[in-house]
Design goal:
With 186 residues, the chain is mostly helical. 66% of the residues lie in helices and 4% in strands. The protein contains 7 helices and 2 strands, in the order ββααααααα. The chain has a two-stranded antiparallel ribbon with strand order 1-2. Helix 1 crosses helix 5.
């Protein structure tokens, strides 16, 4: 139950039930293993920088109808602006990355990528883009979503690789040393 594998249903006829797979539980254990292995947040970001571009490639090749609908909804919805509160921009960005990295169709990659995203998001909470960069980031998200939707696998992968590399450079420049910090289990 502590690991999220079962839930206890109280009352008559209750007892243990198999829980729905939730990557946040896997992420919690992954964090422990990463900490014990001496991993840094830079290592976690490096893993994301390899995995997420490949996953959007798979999503663009797959073009699952439900995923395409979600992408079209995302593209059509009003995006936050430069005036958006930093924490709201960060949440929207994290949700976007969760959405697109969950469209690969590969349950192993989806679970691992979501766990890595959770591990990184735990440290990323205070890392926010300045207002002048937020709209650019959101435009990049829309461009990646359009490439996935349109089945442009090479373009989607390239755009995500550039987007992730830019974030790594931003994190290092704006928050020196943050990527050298060890992963901490909580």
């Amino acid at each position: 139950e502590v690991q999220g594998l079962i839930v206890m249903k109280p009352g008559p006829g209750g007892g243990p039930r198999v829980a729905r797979v939730d990557s946040s539980h896997f992420a919690r254990m992954t964090t422990l293993y990463l900490m014990l292995n001496g991993a840094t947040y830079g290592d976690v970001l490096q893993a994301r920088m390899v995995i997420e571009p490949f996953m959007v490639r798979l999503a663009a090749q797959r073009r699952d109808p439900e995923s395409v609908r979600r992408l079209e909804d995302y593209i059509a919805s009003p995006q936050p602006s430069a005036d958006t509160r930093p924490e709201d921009h960060l949440l929207a960005s994290s949700e976007y990355h969760g959405m697109v990295s969950g469209m690969s169709g590969n349950p192993v990659l989806d679970l691992v990528a979501q766990a890595i995203r959770y591990v990184y998001a735990d440290r990323q909470r205070g890392m926010t883009y300045p207002p002048e960069a937020r709209e650019r980031v959101l435009r990049e998200h829309v461009q990646i979503a359009e490439a996935i939707r349109d089945g442009q696998a090479d373009r989607a992968e390239s755009l995500m690789r550039e987007h992730m590399a830019e974030f790594g450079a931003f994190a290092e420049a704006r928050y020196p040393g943050i990527l050298d910090e060890p992963v901490e289990w909580r």
